[in-house]
Write a structure and sequence with these properties.
alpha/beta; Endonuclease, Chain A; 15-stranded mixed beta sheet; 19 strands
Amino acid sequence: MEYISLIILIVNIVLIGMMMLIERRKPEIIISWLVILAFVPILGFLFYIVFGSGLSIKTKRMLKRKVLYEGLYENFIWEELKRLPELSSSERELVSFNHKASKSLPYFDNNVEFYISGQDKIQALKKDLLNAKHSINMEYYIFDDKGVGKEIMDILCLKAKQGIKVKLIFDSVGCLGAPRRFFRRLKRSGGEVAEFFPPLFGIRLINLKMNYRNHRKIVVIDGRIGYTGGINLRDDHMGLKKKLSPWRDTHIRVEGNAVYGLQNAFFNDWLFCKKIHISSTELVMLGYFPKFEKCGNVVSQIVTSGPESENHYIKESYIKMINSAKHCIVLQTPYLVPDDIFISALKQAIKSNVRVIIMLPNKPDKKFVYLATQSYAREMVECGAEVYLYKGFLHSKLLLIDDTCVSVGTCNADNRSFALNFEINALLYDKKTLLKCFNIIKEDIKNSNQIDLTYFKKKPFTNKIGQIIFRMFAPLL
């Protein structure tokens, strides 16, 4: 027994050493793992191997090598940046920050449509897919083999048989419930399929990278129409699951050269999954980056982030937006489990007399995460934020400041999205678009209940204890 205890101690010391010296984890993450390893040593070790071990140096290098930006956009960058004076000073500040931080280009002259329900988004998507003439590139975290997922797969197979170039990336963890024969249908129809971080030996429950999920939702049709946002291809996202209904989400359809940013993000992931190299020049020649005429008046930036980088680009973009706000901040997220830096930014905004509105779901889909969310929500209420619970499940990932910028995409306000998942967000600069968003938010507030400290005081003792416990493990949730 003494030998077993000694071995466990040595293994735990090695793991902590790896987190500190090799993976360079944040202190709060190391402390959370230390608690788990100390109290449940054997189970904690197995849990760390599956959920906690970082990406290998080889994987990080492969992910970084896949980026297409420099070759494809060298001239385009300078042409677009010449137009920055067309923006207001506050818009220019945000655009310049994101360009320097994450090489996110400003794309001018776009048209953007918003969808706040899964049904509306799917109807528009089906129409665009059926009208595809050149190519369909699709990437989803969840792609179910039943209901709406099957309907979309039927269309993809149909278009592939018609000779349209169809490529699909699905996440191994997000699509755990869908049998692999479902995706092989597309291959048999002439399309191409890639699984992001596939499991070892094809055994789906043995996946040492399952903690790093490709949470992106990207569709690019003919290189001209793009979709991104929170809505996956599963029936609960259509509001068809009573337990989580009504389901409120945000998704956008883009026309214009901002589609280049979505296409670029897709091909970055495609080249990584397929372990191949295609030059940016070749992709242009193949018609994946067509020339655009003016489609609208919206300026956009596409920001991606992932665990291959020590810089959390979307989180940095969020914090820059929060720090730039002068009048109002609106945050919609299903999970509020951020780090101290994010919370501090919101607190500073409140102290600067900025109105901060945070909207969360009233119905939880993940009870443990919801307990941690409630703890952070209470803290924000105590600081003076307006916190609303939507009467249903709010899955929207949106951050809006003043009449300057709105960020819409796949990134939740939690540590998992900021640091562990592969995410994508579109930043939109246009006063008319911002006005549309404010009108949508006004309707959301009508369908929500504002909560105060009395709400939390009435919670049962077990709930309060749960909030304390799961907040401790917030860095791992």
